[in-house]
């Protein structure tokens, strides 16, 4: 254990402290100095051909990705540890600890990028930075306190793992894990208030309002704060699961023994299960956020969904289509290692058909890319026949059917090696299928009906569609749990007997989630257009323009590449530390 | 017929059928049966066919024995001695095909390049009409609460016929006498994506401010629409809007009541 600690944690601890201190130092220095000394509104930056906005963009995006890592993975770890404690299976405990070890290095990376972001903001956007600190200074101090609480709780959580591994001490250790999540969530809520303030400041705020006169709580509890909080919280669970899946895939592919492969196969499945499970409810949180953006400013909402950012949603549809296809694909391949799953094989092609049609419908653009001749033939940029697929009725229907199909894949996977013994098993199966059929019928009915009613009525239909899908999921799981009691096994799952392509599917999921976060983050931030604080503080720099899709996509992809380069290093360090432990034991 | 059971052939047939449907059936067969359609833009055909290709590959590789069988002809073509002639032909044909496709993409053409236009500009919260401020958010058509519908439709029809028909057409379908001279072409008010998706305040903003009043985002708009606030009175614009909705049979999008759940799509 000592070797492990010294290799992975020693430097991490130092980096973490440095990063955190530097952040606080930058805050402390910037506020009094810049508030008093007149100077330029913007600083100069010209390294590697990047301008000041590029620099802040990269730092903010990487900070956010690592922050999502260090918020998502502890959620995962604490749940897995609880399963280990209350279920009595030691392998869960081992898994939770393995991830906490990765967190130590990831924390330092988060702190470093946070410090870089603060330095860039205070030196490249000094006037705006002073404005923000004028309003939010107390929350920034609280942020620093919470950050320290989080860091030291993490140290206690990790280093105390073996010391507090039995009886009541183990439960106290688990409470530490919960506390770690609580501090992390508070840190996220505070940071969210700063960025949502820039999007949706309090309505009474004008350009002439002195920042010191703004009430802190009105700035924090702005119109989009809570929707973003919920959306990010759920997304972090998804991201944590996906990163766990990617780590497991990496370790699976580099494993040399069947035992290791079995462990990492199981870990990959667990990560993927959590990621896809949370993903199913994520669109509803996103929908709420979208509604709040419209409520705050119709202009902002239309810019996002119907204006120049609308094509981002087609790209998003593609990426989410990849998530659905890949997530299901992983489960279908996984059935190859479950005795009894053969009976479900004939249905896969129909489920795939629903998913492919769903992706086609969801990614059909309302305004198509076409040359002059094609536009002339269509009589505009909307296709006379395919145009019906470009509106929300079609897209809501498609995504709800895709969610139902994905849930059906999970159900098949879960039931694959079980033979129910309860007397009502047949009736239960019929009920489950009836629930699926009713949900699909409700989704289709309201999808088609949506074309024949006014927009205001149509919006309400999406609630019925979502309710039908969620109710079916709850109902079917309830029956399944009852049916599985005392069920006979058709054979044990042969963990580790997975082809390598299944692991690449897990890696694709993690990369796609990360890309989506960058893309949608750009949409959220970009809809402010030429405002630092929407319709209050104008961006007067040369970079006030909103970048077109191409440059934005390039920048986001660069951030994703850097992130995975660094995450790859963290994974490698994790393996290195473990290797050292094995060598020590062997010696 | 036995060959048809081979996964590789089945996959190839599914992709080919998909391509034929996207490229030809939607564009050319549906109109024969009286269904309104048009040739599908190349970008969309590519997008759809790619999705089907991915679906086929996922299906084939989701089960080990099927994947083995699917790969078998590819593997044999690349490795087996008795397929060296076919291999030679493919080694010439595939690069030639790629080269031809590349040439088709880059060769000089007289056509305008493919465009990606946003046709849904975001309205401001407030505009000025001849200097007077008007709050657009929550704004309703004032004529809906005064006079009779017939009167407003009659006024609107006269104004539309006098000012709008040359571009937007007497059938409101954007096919007026001058329409062919514009790029982008005038809006088609009979399309489901135009009037039914918009509040009357949005239509008022577009008529009053025209092309010059379009927001900077999404520029260049290249819209030839005049700013009618310089020519028409406010009530004349509102009456024209009532005529547009009545004549096209569409209902305007409505604002949500205060405190009611929901937002625009």
Protein described:
- The complex is a heterodimer of chains A (587) and B (265).
- Helix content of chain A is 76%, strand content 2%.
- Chain A is mostly helical and 587 residues long.
- Chain A has 2 domains: 2-338 and 493-586, no CATH class; 339-492, no CATH class.
- In chain A, strands 1-2 form a two-stranded antiparallel sheet.
- In chain A, helix 12 (345-362) runs antiparallel to helix 14.
- Mean pLDDT of chain A is 87; it is low at 1-9.
- Chain B is mainly alpha-helical.
- Chain B has 2 domains: 2-106, no CATH class; 126-248, Cytochrome Bc1 Complex, Chain D, domain 2 (Orthogonal Bundle), CATH 1.10.760.
- Helix content of chain B is 48%, strand content 3%.
- Chain B contains 8 helices and 2 strands, in the order ααααββαααα.
- Chain B has a two-stranded antiparallel sheet with strand order 1-2.
- In chain B, strand 1 (126-129) and strand 2 (132-135) form a beta hairpin.
- In chain B, helix 1 (7-29) runs antiparallel to helix 2, helix 5 (149-163) crosses helix 8 (234-248) and helix 7 (200-209) packs across helix 8.
- At the A-B interface, helix 9, helix 10, helix 11, helix 12 and helix 13 of A face helix 2 of B.
